[in-house]
Design goal:
357 residues; mainly beta; Porin; 14-stranded antiparallel beta barrel; two-stranded antiparallel ribbon; 2 helices; 59% strand
């Protein structure tokens, strides 16, 4: 029997492809079950509005886009993705939400030279129709809140398969007319590595140095720290780039100042005092997403965010689609996402319009 032919140099080896597929499957399984016991996630607090996701594609894919392999990916998920920008892109999104809430996104990305790219974005969230009342319960006025996040991202490809990037963010919260708006800066950093033509890995660190500092009553200042988030992501491409499977795991750590009153016994009798304690909270969560190109102009998407957060009650599943349409020299893309919010299962509907200039 003649010996089996030896693969030529440079030819792909099927066993290597199978090995990477197995490794990706193991990673995705780890993302889903990395933290099996329920956790109390830090979804409330400083900057929570900016951690909901960005755009219809990201929401539909469970926000698992840290290693997004497509061109013109949003730098919100990883600043290193700015290096993939192929042309100037303007994207605007608006969400339809319950309880008088609103959420909008705006982003512009552009290539800079042969290896670098730039992204600028804006997130606005607000709540209106809040019933204001005085200490006696009498209705006073209708209140509203507004929060903003403005970010500037830069990414550069230092090798054919490796890119890094950084993002500078400005947060602003305006909660009441009699309180000054509070602001803070934050830094993000990210890296992307193309292990093979189909497998991509990524690592990001988000909201470094971010915190709100408030002037409270009695001259006491209050500090609300943002969670420090470290995210490891992966993506794999199947079926000649028609199917993308994405996964991500996030480690989230935040320090909280806790105050409590305790009674102590002194020589003059019992006395109450205020005790302050700083506590560090930590949790893990996973994300999964997949998109498939049915035809050249239609892509379907599905995913789930917050895996491992309070069991299935804390998960945020979503689905959607994207349409491509050319009008003359103008390239348009329309995206839609339907997302079930955790615990209450109210629906969030999000529409995105992208224009390639």
């Amino acid at each position: 029997m003649p010996p089996s032919p030896t693969p030529a140099i440079g030819m792909p080896v099927r066993n290597d492809r199978r090995l990477w597929t197995v490794l990706l499957a193991a990673l995705i399984a780890g993302l889903a079950f990395a933290y099996t016991r329920p956790v109390h996630a830090q979804e409330v607090g400083a900057g929570a509005f900016a951690r909901l996701g960005f755009g219809s594609q990201g929401m539909a894919l469970g926000n698992a886009l840290g290693a997004d392999p497509t061109q013109d990916a949003s730098t919100y998920y990883n600043p290193a993705l700015a290096a993939q920008a192929s042309e100037q892109r303007l994207a605007a999104s608006a969400a339809l939400m319950s309880f008088d809430r609103e959420l909008q996104f705006l982003e512009f990305t552009t290539p800079i030279g042969p290896t670098a790219g730039l992204g600028v974005g804006l997130i606005h969230a607000g709540v209106s129709g809040i019933d204001g009342r005085d200490a006696d319960g009498n209705r006073t006025e209708e209140l509203s809140t507004d929060e903003f996040n403005v970010f500037l991202s830069f990414g550069n490809r230092f090798a054919d398969r490796f890119a890094v990037g950084a993002t500078l963010q400005l947060y602003q919260a305006d909660f009441a007319d009699d309180l000054d708006a509070v602001r803070t800066f934050a830094l993000n950093a990210g890296a992307v590595l193309d292990v093979t033509d189909d497998l991509r890995l990524a690592l990001t660190v988000d909201d470094v140095l971010a915190k709100y500092e408030w002037d409270g009553t009695g001259g006491r200042s209050n500090t609300d720290r943002f969670p420090l988030r470290v995210r490891a992501a992966a993506s794999y491409t199947f079926l000649d780039d028609r199917l993308h499977v994405l996964g991500e795991v996030e480690s989230r750590t935040v320090e909280r100042d806790l105050r409590a009153r305790e009674v102590i016994i002194t020589s003059s009798g019992p006395r109450a005092r205020l005790v302050e304690e700083q506590r560090r909270l930590h949790d893990l969560r996973g994300r999964l997403g997949a998109r498939y190109e049915l035809v050249d102009v239609l892509e379907v998407r599905a995913g789930v965010d917050r895996l491992g957060v309070d069991g299935t009650a804390g998960a945020r599943p979503g689905a959607g689609f994207g349409l491509n349409q050319t009008l003359g020299n103008l390239d348009l893309r329309v995206g839609y996402a339907f997302v079930l919010e955790p615990y209450v299962r109210d629906a969030l509907n999000l529409v995105t319009l992208e224009i390639y200039l």
